[in-house]
């Protein structure tokens, strides 16, 4: 087993722990095990980009710190100028708190919520004080490293640009903020567990992970643009009552208070809140820990009822789009899998988020260049094609599942060809993921472009249908939900991505040319319908045998 | 025999989850060298009793003494002499067996080298020595169960709590394990064995305790229980004492539903 440097540092403080009645050696051993386990987990922040090699103990946590370091550069811009401390620093703490909270929830929930600890460790001669201290230290170590990497660049720059006092306030507040966030997260879990069961909590964690992934990619795009608009020098702050409930503003206030000697009442109030609330919340947390532990037991129990209302909708849509009984079976199966499988959601939902956002980012650009009237009369609505970019992601991920081992079921059922399996699954993806999204964006586009684009929207939809099958044909075919996710990124080459994107571009181009001629769009629609019918009929004749393990 | 001090004494143990009372006054004395077969229907309170004795669940009423020590006092020393195989295979399965077992050994106060040596030998004897350094997540169910059994034996416990310890284990290993249990008992250890497999319980237990609805409804050796209830097997006694007589009717219904094809 590896020796962890942090633990050697901790050894210096051994006597403090022993004085507090903690079995230091046991605590150290528990931490050692926990760190080893952490090294074998892949944090969300790197999870989507890195290929997962199975090499032993390549500490993926260290790797994720590099990502945090890079992301943290954005904070540097806020601390170089000294225009308006309250705004700048509220912003910084807004970003910091969001990042810390989401990464704590998405990656360290397993620590807060591990009920194995209790059964494995407490059944041994270890008292709960020692275990709890190990857990707290574990989370604090993690928070410490992430915070240092994320805020490190800004901290160093601030020391040179803004001087020592600024640096010290910044550092002290970061520590307070970390405490607040650990407690807030724990309290959030406590609240959820009080009213719901473990499954619900896992769902919530899942959605936070998805939100983190979306926010990271989209947020940074938008944040860059924000700089063009916001002129920090000229904003005048007038306090409103609701601002007393926004923690980042509390943390922005002390800078103004101390560095600019601004003694406004609201600044003093904010500063007091920044200091007191974290301390009070720690006290509340300590008081609530036993109740937290008790509620944790619910994690295992699941009164997980899946609504019968959903079933009726699935029943209805399946009969609408499926031709055979077998197809309906797999339509329903895929619908349920996509709804319940958390890893699938984590892989696919972020791209749902992108495909909502991207069309509008382009509209946004158009708006800035030509004004609203220029935009409406332009062909900018073609940006709706960006929605279709999520289709390759969906199609590739449909073959994968966290519970891929369940796929033996395909081999024991009396089926010879995979036609209805694939068709039902793709249709389920269309009806559950793509269509709702497309309709939503279409409605917004109809409002912006005043309804005249309905024919184009129909063309785009037919193209999407066609594109789905093209994606299916170009990517490796594997039975739905039958492969582990680790293989998802590796097996599908970059080339496939290029081919599919190129195809989409081509379809869009034909569309663009078609609407320039009279009746061109109607001819294109007719052609698309025929092509779609043919291609949907003929693309799925695959024998089950061909799909080897 | 009764003159010896009991290893475990339980007096009027009650426990409620919310408004539901799961244990309604358990009284029990367990003596050295007994294998207690602790049986009962699902939800009767078996695992709860075991977990309370291990200090995993608090907030109970009544008194429990293990190895002469009142466990509610917060002193965990008594656990040094206890081994535990939990019902659900809870284990840090991203660790290798070496990492996991040495960790558990050290929690019991063994030093690393000794724990490692002992664990490796036991792994070998259970026929899974070749995967000692592979991650537990790659093990089959039976292999995981063997690791759990080994982890419960590392500290040379005086009292063993086994909750369905044989699930997934092959017949040869089961034979070894049963032999190990009787050998341990001969050496003066006490074993608390809960399981749903009545044949095993019937064979290995020197004393059977049947719990139903949070109360002990039968307590004695298999022979005593047989005499009392006039039934031939533990399974039949179990059915009788838990008031379950409809198995034939339910079975018939199941088969008729299985045959429904339209």
From TrEMBL, chain A:
Protein name, as recorded: ABC transporter permease
Highest classification ranks of the organism: Bacteria, Bacillati, Bacillota, Tissierellia, Tissierellales
Keywords assigned by UniProt, alphabetized: Membrane, Transmembrane, Transmembrane helix
Positions of transmembrane segments: 61-79, 91-115, 136-159, 165-192, 204-223, 266-288, 348-368, 380-399, 429-448, 454-472, 493-513, 519-536
Signal peptide: none
TrEMBL record, chain B:
UniProt key word ATP-binding: yes
One GO MF term attached to the UniProt entry: ATP binding
InterPro entries the UniProt entry points to: AAA+_ATPase, ABC_transporter-like_ATP-bd, ABC_transporter-like_CS
Top-level taxon of the source organism: Bacteria
Domain called ABC transporter: residue spans: 8-238
PROSITE patterns: ABC_TRANSPORTER_1, ABC_TRANSPORTER_2
Keywords, in A-Z order: ATP-binding, Nucleotide-binding
Keyword Nucleotide-binding: yes
The protein's name: ABC transporter ATP-binding protein
Source species: Tissierella simiarum
Upper lineage: Bacteria, Bacillati, Bacillota, Tissierellia, Tissierellales
